[in-house]
């Protein structure tokens, strides 16, 4: 569906409610790899808009309060005198960008389609904007749009300064204030250097063509720690070919379907051999990996990579609190031949994923960080591997509890940024319980096959 016109009716900036003074916070090894990703986009749709202007003012007032704790989101990216990236904040900065818009020809039902993100594009700011641009743009941009029968809240977060856990911590805290609380229940833990304190100098610059940020071409992006400057490759398949035509779909797995997937994967996994039962995440991941690989019709000898962006808060030594604000994730990779994955029962894929996740302990994290600090490489969002299935977000995030005082969201979606062939976002299902919504981006031909795969769909 082509979205009717969205008309911007106002733009303002929101700063923390009280003066904080000058603050600087060094970005650490967990943050820096995301500088050449795009802003992370989220969209929430709410029923009703009886008092749109009043709701916008309430959101802005709540935002000013919550930014006192989350002031880094009101800052900018900068560098210190040695070229180390950091978040900089002072009371003179403009703060968070808030756009008000009108789309009164669009209803909530128009946007509940499970296909694509093009219909959502006009409702979320900063499409195609690189995180590096946070040096001259706000680190958080919000668009509040009045729909025919509801309100859309679209957010774009600079991914170089926070991950999914921190994103939803902020969102729930903002909603808490808007719902009448004077203070937030869980303040953010802002001391990034407690997780890692290596100072990595990066020589990074935006692509020379200012239009490059809107078409995903960031081939000029460079990283250097010791004068050895390397070009970042923009192609997801390493050969420079044009990207395939992608389609995006949301597959809604009911609680019964999720339980069936998990019980099937665990059915032939006897604990007597010392193996652990597979978790819901591992079971669903193996199910998705297997059926996407099948839909791609890979040759038996073709490699396929599974990637998960693992939360390292409890994996690092010493462990960090859940409230740690920043990026504390790392990509965990595992690879196998497509023929092996498909010739074996689904337990094979689940076991491969389980071993990779369990092996990513404090020692593995330390080794990964040390290697990266010696020779930094700034990846693009699509460098997740060949024939990849890459899983981001988490059904553990309580996205449907984000109530600003006018009800819970009808739907939560990701925007069009940071999508490539094989990117998967997992969300808590709207129906609650153990239901999970699975957003998948795939090459059009493979998506068509996946949509017809009854074993994948499990319409229980």
UniProtKB/TrEMBL annotation:
<feature type="compositionally biased region" description="Basic and acidic residues">
    <location>
        <begin position="217"/>
        <end position="233"/>
    </location>
</feature>
<keyword id="KW-0808">Transferase</keyword>
<feature type="compositionally biased region" description="Polar residues">
    <location>
        <begin position="234"/>
        <end position="244"/>
    </location>
</feature>
<dbReference type="InterPro" id="IPR051283">
    <property type="entry name" value="Sec_Metabolite_Acyltrans"/>
</dbReference>
<dbReference type="InterPro" id="IPR023213">
    <property type="entry name" value="CAT-like_dom_sf"/>
</dbReference>
<dbReference type="GO" id="GO:0016746">
    <property type="term" value="F:acyltransferase activity"/>
</dbReference>
<protein>
    <recommendedName>
        <fullName>BAHD acyltransferase DCR</fullName>
    </recommendedName>
</protein>
<dbReference type="Pfam" id="PF02458">
    <property type="entry name" value="Transferase"/>
</dbReference>
<comment type="similarity">
    <text>Belongs to the plant acyltransferase family.</text>
</comment>
<keyword id="KW-0012">Acyltransferase</keyword>
<feature type="region of interest" description="Disordered">
    <location>
        <begin position="201"/>
        <end position="245"/>
    </location>
</feature>
């Amino acid at each position: 569906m082509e979205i009717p016109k969205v008309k911007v009716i106002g733009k303002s900036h929101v700063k923390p409610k009280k003066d904080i003074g000058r603050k600087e916070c060094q970005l650490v090894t967990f943050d820096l790899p995301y500088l050449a990703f795009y802003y992370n986009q989220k969209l929430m749709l709410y029923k009703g808009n009886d008092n749109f202007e009043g709701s916008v003012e309430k959101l802005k007032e709540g935002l000013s309060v919550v930014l006192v704790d989350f002031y880094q989101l009101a800052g900018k990216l900068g560098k210190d005198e040695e070229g180390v990236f950091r978040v900089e904040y002072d009371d003179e900065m403009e703060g968070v960008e808030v756009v008000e818009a009108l789309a009164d020809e669009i209803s909530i039902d128009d946007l509940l389609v499970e296909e694509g993100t093009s219909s959502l594009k006009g409702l979320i700011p900063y499409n195609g904007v690189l995180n590096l641009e946070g040096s001259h743009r706000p680190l958080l941009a919000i668009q509040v749009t009045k729909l025919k029968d509801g309100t859309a809240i679209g957010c774009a977060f600079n991914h170089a300064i926070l991950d999914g856990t921190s994103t939803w911590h902020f969102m729930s805290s903002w909603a808490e204030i808007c719902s009448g609380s004077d203070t937030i229940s869980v303040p953010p833990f802002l001391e990034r250097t407690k997780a890692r304190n290596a100072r990595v100098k990066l020589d990074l610059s935006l692509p020379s063509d200012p239009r490059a940020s809107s078409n995903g071409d960031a081939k000029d992006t460079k990283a250097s720690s010791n004068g050895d400057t390397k070009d970042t490759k923009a192609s997801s398949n390493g050969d420079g070919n044009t990207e395939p035509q992608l389609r995006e779909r949301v597959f809604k797995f009911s609680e019964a379907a999720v339980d069936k997937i998990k019980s099937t994967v665990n059915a032939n996994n006897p604990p007597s051999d010392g193996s652990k039962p597979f978790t819901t995440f591992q079971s669903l991941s193996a199910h998705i990996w297997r059926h996407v690989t099948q839909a791609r019709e890979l040759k038996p000898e073709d490699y396929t990579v599974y990637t998960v962006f693992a939360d390292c808060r409890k994996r690092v030594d010493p462990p960090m609190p859940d409230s740690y604000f920043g990026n504390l994730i790392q990509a965990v990779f595992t690879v196998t031949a497509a023929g092996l994955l498909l010739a074996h029962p689904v337990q094979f894929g689940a076991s491969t994923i389980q071993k990779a996740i369990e092996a990513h302990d404090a020692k593995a994290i330390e080794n990964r960080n040390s290697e990266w600090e010696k020779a930094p490489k700034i990846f693009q969002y699509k460098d997740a591997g060949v024939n990849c299935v890459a899983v981001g977000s988490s059904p553990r995030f309580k996205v449907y509890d984000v109530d600003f005082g006018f009800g819970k969201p009808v739907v939560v979606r990701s925007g069009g940024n940071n999508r490539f062939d094989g990117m998967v976002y997992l969300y808590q299902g709207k129906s609650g319980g153990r239901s999970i919504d699975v957003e998948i981006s795939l090459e059009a031909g493979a998506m068509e096959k996946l949509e017809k795969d009854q074993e994948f769909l499990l319409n229980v």
